[in-house]
Amino acid sequence: MCAGCVQKEYPERGNTCLENGSFLLNYVGCAECSKRDFVLITNRTQDDDDGEEIVTYDHVCQNCHHIIAQHEYTFTVVDDYQEYTMLCMLCGKAEDTISILPDDPRQMAPLF
Q: CATH no. for residue 32?
């Protein structure tokens, strides 16, 4: 992973968790070849381990194949919620939780 290729290391992304893709606004350019071009996704793996889906891949410079960052995305279902996380030097860090029920119990107002 290369801190010289990114504007900010692990930027806070709120609840934006990317399973695929790159956060190009944070990409300064390749520290190895000094070019700012498209970022390739290589070495993509997807593992389903005991109900947890883990997707990992490398962000790589299109020109010189320098590894810019390693991306990790996870998805799990815990109780009545889908939980997502992302950790990547280029794309940032984020977490999100979404209810699988039609009405999210956390957002319901008390009746009295």
A: 2.60.40.4240
Task: Give the range of the structural domain holding residue 17, as residue numbers without chain letter.
Answer: 3-101
Q: Domain count for the chain, please give it.
A: 1
Tokens (6 digits) for 7: 């504007």
Structure tokens at 96: 């999100």
| Segment 27-66, tens digit of pLDDT | 999 999 998 888 999 999 999 988 899 999 999 999 999 9
Average pLDDT over residues 97-103: 77
